[in-house]
Task: structure prediction
Amino acid sequence: MSDVKKGKRREFSDPDAIFASERERIDDFDFGAETAAVFDDMLDRSVPHYAEIQRMTGELVGEFVEDGTSVYDLGCSTATTILHVAKSVPSCVTAKFVGIDSSQEMLDIAKRKLDASNFAFPYELRCADLNDGVHVADASVVLLILTLQFVRPLHRERLLRSVQEGLEKGGCLVLVEKVLGRDSLLNRLFIERYYDMKRRNGYSDLEIAQKREALENVLVPYQLEENLQLLRDVGFSATDVFFKWYNFCGIIAVK
Result:
């Protein structure tokens, strides 16, 4: 593990060692209590340039939040993105933050983090499964940060259509996803470089292999162009890529 990662412990997260010991059976990955307890550390070590993605998201969103509207974070987990975005909202703007997640354990940590930060905006945390649909209303911003990839493909267009319909004109969606490469050779190379990054951040080959197996039927990535086409199909007027690192990308879409 790198010197930067040694001794680094987030206040609301234990170190991620979920897959450190060999398991006889690998169950599907879930976002329950075991994952929630280590989730912030997991994201720091598993998502390339995670802190920069959060900074960029907040910076972009700050241009779109309007007074009297809502900011939705779908798949908000432990509220890391909500906290980053709030820093970019002008103090003169009154906006409500709505965090939705299917894991009550994640939401419990989110509430503790928001309360500990003396969060300055009104907020609401809801436990709901995005596969069942979502109601978005009076939104100037919607966030899907590493979330859509966990929604079953059958339900993704319906979810994005609900987001587009619930956004005010001129509002934006920020979508961050793991993606597939268009070419099989390049896709394989990108994935290998991703695993190299995880090794640099202290994960063993056993952890990488076991987590990959756990995610196999849970995380279903699309190609970048497939995600962009989905956004166009549901009615977003402008889309662009603001972040790309091998098999991870960030997209902003405007209604």
The beta strands are 70-74, 96-101, 123-127, 139-145, 167-180, 222-223, 238-245, 248-254. The CA atoms of residues 32 and 157 lie 26 Å apart.
